[in-house]
Structure formats: C-alpha cells, structure tokens
C-alpha cells in the first residue's frame, strides 16, 4: 500500500449566463466534457450580466466592451468558477489580465438570417416593400443592409431571442435579422426565412462559435477544455479577432468578416461600414492558416489605409466608444 493519500479530484465549476441560448450552449459543453471525462464532476453556475439587465437602452449606446461577459470573468478571477462558456462573438478581443481564450468549438453556420412576419412570408430581403421595418440591434447589420436596401426602415430591438420573436409576431416589426446559429441551437431553424449571403452582409467576428475562457494559470482546466477545440474554426476565429482587435472595435461597431479555409490556406474578407451605409471599405487577404492572427492584423492595416480609420472615428464621435 502506498502511504500517499490523494485528495479527490476537484469539482469543475462552469460559469454561464442564464438566457436559454446561453444555457443550451453551456449544457452542450458540459455534456461533451462529461463524455470525455466520465469520472469528473461538472457543475453549471449561472449569473446575470449587465447586458441581461439593461434591456431598455440600445446596445450601441451602452456599447461597453464585455457587456455580456464581465460578471462571468470576475467570478473566474475570484476563483468562484473555473471556466466560462460564451458565444464567441460576445467576448471582447482583449481579455482581463489572468484570463485567456482556452478553447474555440466547431462553428455553426456563421451567417445572419432574415426572419419575417407572416404577412411577408412570400418576400425576400430583395422584395420587401419600401418602409418595411427591420429589427436589429447590430450596427454591423444596419450599415450593410442600409447600403444595399436604402428603402427599408431599421429599428433597434433588444432582448433575448424569444422576446424578439414575440415582438415580431405581435407586429412591432416586419422582419428581424438574427444569427442563424442562435436559431439553430434553440431548435427554431424553421424561423429562418432566408440565409443572408456574404455579398450582402458579412457576419460578426466569431459568430456561430463558442469560446471557452479560463484562468491562464490553470493548466488542468486548459487541458480539459482543449479536447473540444476545432482547429479550423479556431484558426478562422483567431484571424477574425485579430482583425477586430487591430481596428480597436468593440462588439458594437459596423465591422463584418467572412473566412474560408481551403487546404492550408485561410482567406479573410473584412468590411468597415459607415452607419448610413454610404461608405463601405472592404478588402481581403489570404495566407497560411497557421498564421491566422498576422493575416487579421494585416487586413486591418490595409483597410485603415483605405479609409476605415475615418469611418470608425466618425462613429465613435456619434455613439461613443
Ligand atoms: N449578441 C447576441 C447574440 N450572441 C450570440 C448570438 C447568436 C449565436 C452566435 O452568434 O453564436 C446572439 C443573437 C443574435 O445575434 O441573433
């Protein structure tokens, strides 16, 4: 008999927001980890974030980085929880000291979707009538859609997916723009009326992927969560996040992206748009997928030379950082 008495393995505490989408995502991560590590115990700890509490102010006006993540991060820093599951697009590109993005999971379709009121079930984005009211809280969607469809009317909408869909059905809006991924994860794919192609609107950085954030000095957690990493998604998202970071945009800036990996090559397309949809600076870059972050940074520099900095300065002067 060995004289060494080992302590039982620690219980792993997962931090999550309380929204239905957040819980579906977190419970997926919990179930996957449980399959890989059947002897470990994973507990979910839910909390509300500022973004869940302030529902009567436009996102662009609150505009604070980390609106949906700060409380979860504080819990990890205080060691009340071990890692947090986020929609990667809600996670700022710069993380607090001591925390890192430890894992990026396989992405769902990252595109946006048009969801319509039933009176427009025979219409597409291209055929909606003059003045049709489109609900979105995203400056990125607003700017790009205004560019292509200046005859449509755009109105801010807040609240979780179910709240938004209820407002649409009640007739407050004629259509909404929502992420395909969120609708799919909540089992509401039947509400996707049209998937918006990248030629019309580029998606948000990190859209459709989950990001798992943890303490940088916790190798045990880092190695546990790494089993869920999907390398091509991670490379694409690292390129996208480097692009956004270099442009110093938070989540509430009209910046869109698209990425493709073919063989060893990653192609990144990026756009910076003015809020009125008048100015649009768009370009692309391709290179080795293993050098994803450099590609993102380089594309940001390219766009800045083409006028992106002026567009962003104008927006920050209007709505604040
Ligand atoms: N900002 C809210 C948010 N954060 C993540 C998703 C959808 C899922 C995803 O993009 O991974 C949504 C809803 C939406 O944009 O329609």
From TrEMBL:
CDD domains linked to this entry: PBP2_HuPBGD_like
Cofactor: dipyrromethane
Chain positions found as S-(dipyrrolylmethanemethyl)cysteine: 251
UniProt remark on cofactor binding: Binds 1 dipyrromethane group covalently.
Keywords: Porphyrin biosynthesis, Transferase
EC number(s) from the headed UniProt entry: 2.5.1.61
Record-annotated Porphobilinogen deaminase N-terminal domain positions: 12-221
Catalytic activity field: 4 porphobilinogen + H2O = hydroxymethylbilane + 4 NH4(+)
GO molecular function: hydroxymethylbilane synthase activity
EC primary class: transferase
More details: The porphobilinogen subunits are added to the dipyrromethane group.
Quaternary structure and interacting proteins, as annotated: Monomer.
Function according to Swiss-Prot or TrEMBL: Tetrapolymerization of the monopyrrole PBG into the hydroxymethylbilane pre-uroporphyrinogen in several discrete steps.
Family to which the UniProt record says this protein belongs: Belongs to the HMBS family.
Name the UniProt record assigns to this protein: Porphobilinogen deaminase
Organism encoding this protein: Floridaenema evergladense BLCC-F167
Gene name of the record: hemC
């Amino acid at each position: 008999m060995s004289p060494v008495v080992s302590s039982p393995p620690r219980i792993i505490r997962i931090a999550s927001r309380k929204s239905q989408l957040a819980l579906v995502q977190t419970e997926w991560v919990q179930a996957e980890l449980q399959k890989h590590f059947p002897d470990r115990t994973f507990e979910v700890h839910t909390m509300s974030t500022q973004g869940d509490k302030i529902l009567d102010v436009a996102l662009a006006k609150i505009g604070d980085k980390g609106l949906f993540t700060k409380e979860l991060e504080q819990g990890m820093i205080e060691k009340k929880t071990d890692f947090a599951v986020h929609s990667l697009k809600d996670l700022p590109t710069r993380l607090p000291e001591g925390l890192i993005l430890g894992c990026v999971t396989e992405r769902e379709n990252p595109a946006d979707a048009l969801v319509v009121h039933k009176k427009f079930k025979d219409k597409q984005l291209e055929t909606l009538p003059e003045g049709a009211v489109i609900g979105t809280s995203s400056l990125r969607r607003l700017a790009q859609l205004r560019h292509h469809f200046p005859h449509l009317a755009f109105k801010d909408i807040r609240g979780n997916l179910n709240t938004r869909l209820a407002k649409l059905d009640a007739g407050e809006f004629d259509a909404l723009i929502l992420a395909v991924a969120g609708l799919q994860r909540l089992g509401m794919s039947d509400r996707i009326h049209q998937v918006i192609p990248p030629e019309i609107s580029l998606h948000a950085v990190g859209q459709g992927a989950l990001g798992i954030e943890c303490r940088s000095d916790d190798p045990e957690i880092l190695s546990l969560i790494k089993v869920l990493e999907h390398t091509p998604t991670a490379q694409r998202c690292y390129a996208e996040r480097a692009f956004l970071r270099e442009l110093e945009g938070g989540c509430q800036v009209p910046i869109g992206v698209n990425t493709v990996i073919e063989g060893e090559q990653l192609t990144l397309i990026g756009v910076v748009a003015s809020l009125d949809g008048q100015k649009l600076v768009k370009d692309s870059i391709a290179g080795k997928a293993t050098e994803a972050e450099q590609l993102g940074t380089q594309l940001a520099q390219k766009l800045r030379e083409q006028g992106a900095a002026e567009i962003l300065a104008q927006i920050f002067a209007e709505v604040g950082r």
